[in-house]
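---------- Forwarded message ----------

FYI, see the AMP-binding enzyme C-terminal domain-containing protein record below. Original note from H. follows.
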Amino acid sequence: MSIVDLIDNSVKNYPDNDAVDTSGGIINYRNFGEKIQDFVRQLEGCTSPGEFVGIEADRKFGAIVAMVGALKARRPFVFIDTRDSESSNAEKISSLGIKFIARNHTGENRAYLTGVPAGWYLSSSDQTVGIPSVEDEIGYAIHTSGSTGDPKCVLVRTDPLTSVIQYHMDRLSVGSKSRTLQFARLTFDGCITEILWTLAAGACLVVLDEAQLVPGTVLQNTLENFRITHLKTTPFALTATEPSSAMSLSHVINGGGVCRPSVVQKWSEVAKFHNAYGTTETTVCNFLSGELTPGECTRAVPLGDIVGDCDYYIQGLAPADEQSSSEEVTSRGELVITGESVAVGYFTAQGVQRFTDIEGRKVYHTGDIVERREDQLYFVERLDRQVKVRGYRLDPGEIEIAVCEIGSIKDTVVTVESHEGDKTFEPDALVCYYQGDVEPRAVRHHLEDVLDSYKIPSVIKRIDAFPYTPNGKVDRDALQTIRLEVDCVDEKMSSAQQVLHLARQLTGVDDAMLHDNFFDLGGDSASAVILINKIKELGWVDAGVRDVLRAENLKVLADQLQERSV
């Protein structure tokens, strides 16, 4: 039974159930089915099977109808966001050979086809003729966010959708009385599962403007007022929003980023909590956990069980600074997805770059480092986020996991930066930013107990809230700006106050005192050099690193400087 058959059954079995609840009104399944059929007739009248159609990605009823109608008519689709640049949309439309765009007819609450807007045409010399013939039936194209490189167009098959959606329906107990909040942007592949698991179960899909989905109090009110039972959202939204007893939630799913133990602790009090993992280059979701409890997530949150028609293996990592083609399966390494859920490939100007190995098997190397412990799989870090500092190659994600073992910490990000904050300088500081109630020195003491010394950050900085990009990713550039937003040393300060101020700035320990040793606070050889350079700028030109090394504490260092100024 296909995904389209499942939705047809919902129309047949639950004609009077609410299908879609939008700002424009509520549509039942009987009406929904009629509008799908109307749109299918439009498609069949002006397009051919396999021909791409664009769908305007506004949060309206018409977009949902167009998506299901395209699947039913066997016309692959791609969502087009009018907020993107005209050149970007023109490139998408031209490369896929799109001639028609589906839009929402507000007055009649339906989807209709229109020609491509003039601003979305490339010049005739730049136009292409659409995708070449492939043996696979394409369901949709989705463009990667570009967070790990340039955005790429991924072609995804239709057939694997059914098993992925059925697995979600079973694991999340989605039924005809359920109400799912359509949270993900339509240009993000996460929207596919939340839309289809709802409609395939005869449940109600709640589609609202983005203004009603802002993490925090706004999202909290939306979950309460619209009686949402199923929510799949990002780590940021789950961290920023507080659950309440007025909510009707039965299942909450973390997706789109690393889940922290504090999130499980908070949301498992009001609903069954799950963690999900997937890549754009596969059929949305590859792993989905069962119900998670805080007790089993004290150190990290498992990815869950295999979803749909896929499998995986862990490919061992090459030794530092060496290249390797080894396919050795280990308990820690790069996650490789195999099987039918792997997408067709990237569609490029040179054709389709297929996700296959040399033997033609469907394979996708995710670029994610994972670790298998006690029959569970855990995310560690992006392969391209591995860093080299102090002569060691490190996984920042491993350090983040250790930080989040502290119960009161909500989230953390570990980066490599220059102590000076100048991007033209070689990164020489491992910096840990975290959100939580515990003091930086307590975080350091914990890390000293569980990590090798070379993995402990030089700077541990507590912040009130993490800055995020429009795509919901932590804005690492903004984090560094926050760290460097400190008051300059006041020349009217005493020598002791000046030294203390600099030590706090360089280590992130805001409650550092004069009796503290600089290196016990997290200072290292690199930050000691910076400290001395700053001290020289204040007038103690003969100060040297040896003074920091020999000083029992900051007071002794300050006293030595003061004696030289006499």
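H. also flagged this: The two ends are 88 Å apart (CA to CA).
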